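Aim 2, interim progress. The first record below pairs a target sequence with its structure tokens.
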Amino acid sequence: MRVLKLTGLRRMQLLDAPQPALTSPMDVLIRVACVGVCGSDVHYYTTGRIGSQVVQYPFAVGHEFAGTIEAVGAEVRNVRPGDRVAVDPAMPCCACDQCLSGRRHTCRNLRFLGCPGQIEGCLCDFLVMPAATCIRLPDTCTMEQGALVEPLSIGAYAARLAGNLRGKRIAILGCGPIGLSVLLAARRAGTARIYVSEPIAARCAFARQCGAVWGGAPSGDLVAAILRREPLAMDAVFECCGRQAALDQAVELLKPGGRLMLIGIPEVDRVSFSIDLLRRREIDIQNVRRQNECVEAGIELVKVFPNLTAGMVTHRFPAEQTQDAFDLVAACEDGVVKAMVQFDPDRV
């Protein structure tokens, strides 16, 4: 089978590998249909690391995918061969203190697809996964939308962590796939008004299609432009790009008692805040770590917003051009929102 592996910074190679076999009665063999290129994958591609997670070459990244069940272990009951599935890339132990307290996403023994030191990713033709990670797709859901369930689940989880958003005013800083997923989840939660910032004009325009009442570039007057429209400021701000400038703007945009949701992954090891503004406004800071039990909520977003979720996929590449897909996303060129790599184009 084909597998794409990182072989160095900004280097990727298409290799041939044996097709994996089932070894556990609770595992399934999946034929990969398509894989979404995520910003975290691009971090590994361009810098070789995210914080303490450092790539040891060669290594396959990729964790957003959908596919078809090819074979199942003897004790699998939730799916069967021929089922089209979205796949949760997180594999918790279900036995540690975090798992037992309802925090499987911070499992102390977590294995996550495409994460260095844990398990190689899904940029390949076939993959073996625990059956428990597979969720059957509705007939109305395409494979590409199935691959989008992972970022949509993060958006749904972030909206859930933010508390009751009904009737609230929020801002989303950064409207790549995660920011747009937050936007759709916030709409679903009944948010009154959503403001966005995004340097790529095409993404900003799409965010307005998705329901943002205002969108603009993250320039120096962004805060003033939003506060002219909302003098009482934002109830919550979702920082989705991992930039220091966006963190500064987020704090300035929040009302006293507002909540800052940190979702973006910075390339640096440390960020800073104005402690004066944080303290005087009593700003609540909430980190968002992937998603926790929100895959079904991600699928629900596909059902509620079928055209908008489909519209998030702007570029498609055959497996042989995966590096081109990564270069495009890394450069944020051509108005890219989500680039999708197709391993089984006939089933996408």
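The second target in this work package is listed in the same format:
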Amino acid sequence: MDPAVQLIECPRDAMQGLKDFIPTRDKVRYINQLLQVGFDTIDFGSFVSEKAIPQMRDTHEVLAQLDFSSARSRLLAIVANARGADIACAFDEIHYVGYPFSVSETFQKRNTNRSISDSLDLVKELKEITDRTDKELVVYLSMGFGNPYGDPWNADIVTQWSERLHEEAGVRILALSDTIGSADVQSIGHLFSSIQRDLPKVLLGVHLHSRAEAAAEKIQAAYDAGCRRFDGALMGFGGCPMAKDDLTGNIPMERMVAHLESKGVATGIDAEALHRAMQIAREIFPS
């Protein structure tokens, strides 16, 4: 049965905030297993400053050791500037290039050291690079459901930036990102459905951070609003290290799969391969 949803597994997001370096061999072993599970995409690494995200300093080495002989997924890499995009786009194995665009001025400066206006200009440049190299650009609207910094925020601001990213920069894939876990069922449903209505040619997804116990209702709210592209990370590991110290984790991917399948939604996930991936996750992630 063909999957009815696109599931994006995010080991990069799960790993990036950890202080202890995960050995390259363990990352390779884990991601190679994830490639067998049936996810649409694996957000596997990033080409960013080693000082900012030291956990991802071995992304080149990891990529060189991945086995694509029977892989069922495509790869996504995160970048923070044009240089990173040039590096990512030089690899045939990478299909998607992701960029975090914040509707919070404070967080955009904190995360990428640039203003929102400069970030929009960068997105235009990234779109040119990805188009030239036959890649797809994915823009994450971070702080999409509110922020703790006191910057102006409402649904109209998020919608306006979504429209500008599509109309001015030509972005075709957007992910509404709940960076700090502030979204609730009502805000997810309202924001997703309104942006999807205004931008019918955009593939709109969600990248939600949440307490595990609230995950199912948030997934269902997004699905009911029309979402068919979901990010998550096995066992809920991870979060954004640039957001705040007491991180809210990712939506646990195994809970997402179980919830969607319980509602009759085809995910295309191989249960045995997923179980093996979770065993490796328990071995390499701190308990």
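Residues 116-132 form the longest helix (17 residues). This observation will shape the mutagenesis plan for the next reporting period.
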